[in-house]
C-alpha cells in the first residue's frame, strides 16, 4: 500500500494511530522516528502491574524470566475478541531461524503464556537480550484503543553465571528509545526507593531535559508507611 494512499485515509485520531501501526508493521520505523509510547523502568519496578492497569492485559511477572526484548501491544476496541502474537526478527543467533512466529490468541488470558513461550525461545537461542520484538495485536469489547511498547527493565547487577553484557545492552536499548523525539516515555519508579537517584529518571532527564515527553509513574505505594 502506497504512503499517499494511507495518508488519504486519515480522518480521526484512531485512524492516525492505525496508520502509524501500519507504517511500523512494514518496517518504516527502522528508517524514521514514528510516534510511540514506551514503558520503561528498573527490573522489579512494577512495570508489569502498570502495563496490566493501562491495557487490561496481564503480563508475565515471573522473576526467573523477565522481559528480554521489546514487547509491542496493539489494542483496538471491537465487538468480538480476536488476537495474534508473533515474534518479529531484527536479529537472531539461531541458524535455523524460521522468521516471524505467529500464534492465534483465543482469549485474553492466553497472553502471558504466549509471551513466556516466545521469551523462552529467545533464551534457548542464547539471546539474553534481543532487539527482536514480540508483537501482540488484539481487539475486543473490553480493550482500549492503545498502542504501547514494553522495554526490558534496567539491570544493576547480574548473577555470577549470567552474562555481564546484559547491563550495558539493556541501557543502550532504553537509551535508543528515549532519544527518539516522537517517543512518550512512561518512566516507572517504585515508591520504596529514592526517586532522585533512580537510573530511569536520570536517563529520562538526560534524553528529555524539559520533561515534555516524560510521564513518571510511581508504583508499589503499599510498601511505603
UniProtKB/TrEMBL annotation:
GO MF entry, a single one: GTP binding
InterPro entries (alphabetical): Dynamin, Dynamin_GTPase, Dynamin_N, G_DYNAMIN_dom, P-loop_NTPase
Stored Gene3D superfamilies: P-loop containing nucleotide triphosphate hydrolases
One Pfam short name: Dynamin_N
Superkingdom, natural source: Eukaryota
Domain Dynamin-type G: 31-225
Cellular component GO terms, alphabetical: cytoplasm; membrane; microtubule
Protein name per its UniProtKB record: Dynamin-type G domain-containing protein
The species this protein was found in: Phytophthora nicotianae
Source lineage: Eukaryota, Sar, Stramenopiles, Oomycota, Peronosporomycetes
Amino acid at each position: 500500500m502506497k504512503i499517499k494512499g494511507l495518508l488519504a485515509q486519515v480522518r480521526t485520531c484512531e485512524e492516525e494511530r492505525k496508520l502509524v501501526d501500519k507504517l511500523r508493521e512494514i518496517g518504516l520505523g527502522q528508517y524514521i522516528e514514528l510516534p510511540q509510547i514506551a514503558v520503561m523502568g528498573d527490573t522489579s519496578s512494577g512495570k508489569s502491574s502498570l502495563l496490566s492497569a493501562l491495557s487490561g492485559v496481564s503480563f508475565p511477572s515471573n522473576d526467573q524470566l523477565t522481559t528480554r526484548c521489546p514487547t509491542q501491544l496493539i489494542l483496538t476496541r471491537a465487538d468480538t475478541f480476536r488476537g495474534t502474537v508473533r515474534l518479529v526478527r531484527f536479529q537472531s543467533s539461531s541458524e535455523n531461524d524460521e522468521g516471524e512466529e505467529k500464534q492465534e490468541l483465543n482469549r485474553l488470558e492466553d497472553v502471558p503464556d504466549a509471551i513466556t513461550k516466545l521469551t523462552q525461545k529467545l533464551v534457548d537461542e542464547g539471546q539474553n537480550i534481543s532487539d527482536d520484538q514480540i508483537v501482540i495485536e488484539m481487539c475486543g469489547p473490553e480493550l482500549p484503543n492503545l498502542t504501547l511498547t514494553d522495554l526490558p527493565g534496567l539491570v544493576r547487577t547480574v548473577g555470577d553465571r549470567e552474562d555481564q553484557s546484559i547491563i550495558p545492552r539493556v541501557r543502550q536499548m532504553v537509551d535508543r528509545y528515549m532519544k527518539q523525539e516522537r517517543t512518550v516515555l512512561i518512566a516507572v519508579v517504585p515508591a520504596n526507593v529514592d526517586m532522585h537517584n533512580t537510573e530511569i529518571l536520570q536517563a529520562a532527564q538526560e534524553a528529555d531535559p524539559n520533561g515534555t515527553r516524560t510521564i513518571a509513574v510511581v508504583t508499589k505505594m503499599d510498601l511505603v508507611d
